[in-house]
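S.,

Sequence below, as promised.
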Amino acid sequence: MEFEVWAPGAERVALLCEGTTRAMERADGRAGWWTAEAEAADGARYGFSLDGGPVLPDPRSRRQPDGPDGLSALVDHDRYAWRAPWAGRGVRDAVLYELHVGTYTPDGTLDSAAGRLGHLAELGVTHVELMPVCPFPGQHGWGYEGVSLWAVHEPYGGPEALKRFVDAAHAHGMGVVLDVVHNHLGPSGNHLPAFGPYFTDTHHTPWGAAVNLDAPGSDEVRAYLITSALAWLRDYRLDGLRLDAVHALRDTRACHFLEDLSAAVDELAGELGRPLSLIAESDQGDPRVVTPRAQGGLGLHAQWNDDFHHALHTALTGESHGYYEDFAHAPFAALAKTFTGGFFHDGTYSTFRGRRHGRPVDRARTPAYRFLGYTQTHDQIGNRAQGDRLSASLSPGLLACAAVLTLTGPFTPMLFMGEEWGAATPWQFFTDHTDPELADAVRRGRRREFAAHGWAEDDIPDPQDPATRTRSCLDWAEPLTDPHARVLAWYRELIALRRALGDLLDPDLAALRVAYDESARWFAVRRGDLRIAVNIGKEAVDIPLGGRGARVLAAWEPVTAPGADGLLRLPAESCAVLATP
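The prediction came back faster than expected:
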């Protein structure tokens, strides 16, 4: 078979394959590329040596059996016999579920996670969103320090295990979205700089030099990322990709990298005959991310909406530090603005940033389903000092209120694993760096970060302590006992309502109406013939819903339908969904 590698600065390149070394030749008509022929089959180990240096793994390695620093291994994707027929599933009308393979079960493998997919199917989830699975140092970690962008972390089970997981999800009728990280790699195990200008000092990011999307040599770097994305979608039959922190993709070219990527993914979707989705994490508050390319946008299919999370979080918890400050001033008003306008920051002043931020959403051409709404995510839990979930500080009733606003709201809902039963386990920041200096730097950096906010060092979990990861694993005995079982039943009921009632899938933000009382702490939403009422306060309230003859479809606590006066008497820390004739 033919081996190839891009190494534009090398004077000579050698291929080491199954213990045999052979010189590579420059590829005709492909500047910077080297090729060589060698007998090899699935599983064969190989690597490249540049100018007589050490043998390094392939930047496009499909498998790293011995971790990021080991030799690469060939993968014959045709060897896997797919079992579940699958026509694909887009993000419209979806319910996503963010899942971290290493803590979803104590075993921390794709196969063990696949064994729990029946729970998600019964819950009503339509898509599993896997956190990153690319190889990273050690065994356990969040996955955002991966390196080989075509490979699957071996402790998770490697390439075959990911295919089995996707196959099992499809058999349950669920799509699979994979979180991929294009904005940085490594640092540990990152050998890309030895091969070419994959990074540039032209721009800087929180992780150092930026990925090279616009400097000399960037054509090949952009192609590297795009072909990696297409490989995940094609070779593993994935239904979409979640793109980490796209605001850190620094690109000054006329045609942005994300526009090129979305065009390539749409083309692949046409070839495969099934929908493929790109979901962005963006901190820019810019609806052009999800505006179609034909309308001057970047053409991604959906994006996370942190504004919704922040407004809801401040209303529930009263927290006001950091980026919560702007929302905490009047959290119900902030929630109302995001419900009806998509973003809270739409060109308004952000105290946290010290400047104006965001851009208005054109509600006439931007459907609500292009924004993901969520109460909790890996970031919003794991980046807290102790990784505490909402369940650590909120009553089951308030968790139910959060769920009803997320699952009956206008945005595409996403849950974080364990949220559906109010998991008591934290989800903390953990690493398994094999480099002692890097491990210590991460540990000290974490403690220093939170010490600035008044936390004692001893109260900050040690990311390198295996117990930190163990504490973060879900406890699958919890959903069998109250109050967890009750919360789980509520989530199932709400998702079933979302699937059954067309008004809950209406993507028109302009058609949605809200009312609220900041002091009484209630919030009400009208979606077509439906009314959603939430009381976050500690006292019962009378909420003017209007509409005679309303009937209760679902309620956290027993309630009576409004009488002739249209008032709904709602108990403290409770919520209800009603239908009007």
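The mean pLDDT is 96.

Coffee later?
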